[in-house]
Amino acid sequence: MSPSPAEPGQAGAAPDAPRTRRPDLDPRGPRFGAGITAVLLLVVVFLSLTGASVAALSLLAVLAALFAWGAFAGAGRHPWGLLFKRVVRPRLNPPRELENPAPPTFAQGVGLLVTLVGVLLGLVGLAPAVGIAAAAAFVAAFLNAVFDYCLGCQLYLLLVRSGLLGRDQATIR
Predict the structure, then answer these.
(1) Residue 88 has pLDDT above 60, yes or no
(2) Inside any domain, residue 13
(3) Which residues make Cβ contacts (< 8 Å) with residue 112, sequence separation at least 6?
(4) Using CA atoms, how far apart are residues 51 and 53, in angstroms rounded to an integer?
(5) 61 occurs within a structural domain
(6) Contact (CB, 8 A) for 169 and 147
(7) Residue 132: exposure state from Cβ atoms within 10 A (0-12, 13-18, ≥19)
(8) What does the alpha-carbon distance between residue 54 and residue 140 come to, in Å, rounded to a whole number?
(9) What is the pLDDT of residues 34-77, one digit of tens each?
(10) I need a surface site. Which of 8, 56, 106, 133 has the fewest CB within 10 A?
(11) Are 104 and 75 a contacting pair, CB within 8 Å?
C-alpha cells in the first residue's frame, strides 16, 4: 500500500497542504522492537521482585522515555525501529505489504501511559507499582512480539471505529 501522489506531503500535493501521514512501516519492525522491549520489561519485573527497586524504577523510566520517543516521533523513528531498518531489514526479503504507522504509534502512547504511571507511583514510594506496570506492559509487548497481536493497535482501531479518534479509511481495513 503506497500513498497516492496527490496525498498531502507527497509530490503533486498543494505546497500548503498539511502532511497527514507518516511513511508506511514494515510490520516486522514494531514486532522486533516489541521483542526487545518485552525482554527489558521482564528485567524490570525481575528487579522489582528481587528488591532492587531503584534499578527497576530507573530502567522503567528509560523505557517510558523510549515509549515517549515512539509516541511523539512515530513508531518508524523509534530507536528499535531505526535499528531494525538499518541492521535487520536489509538481511530480510521485502515485506509482503506495509502498514499504516498510526496504530503502532498510538500503541507506543499506550505503553508510555502504562510505564509512566508505574514510574510516577514508584517515585512517590509505591515500589510494587513499578513491577505491576512493567508486568502489564510486558504482556502487551510479548503478545505483539510472539503472536503479532498488538493490543494498542486494537485499541486504536476500536477508538477510530467508535468515532473517538479521527476516521481514516486507510486505517480501518
Answers:
(1) yes
(2) no
(3) 64, 67, 68, 70, 71
(4) 5
(5) yes
(6) no
(7) middle
(8) 24
(9) 999 999 999 999 999 999 999 999 999 999 999 999 999 998 89
(10) 8
(11) yes
> How many domains in the chain?
1
Q: Do 21 and 166 meet the contact criterion of CB atoms below 8 Å apart?
A: no
Q: What are 50's three cell numbers? A: 528481587
Q: Which domain holds residue 52?
A: 28-85+96-172
pLDDT in tens, 99-144: 999 999 999 999 999 999 999 999 999 999 999 999 999 999 999 9
For residues 24 and 37, the model is more confident at 37
**Which of 169, 27, 159 shows the shortest CA–CA distance to 104?**
27
The answer to the question of residue 36 being in a domain is yes
53 inside domain: yes
Question: What global pTM score does this model have?
Answer: 0.82
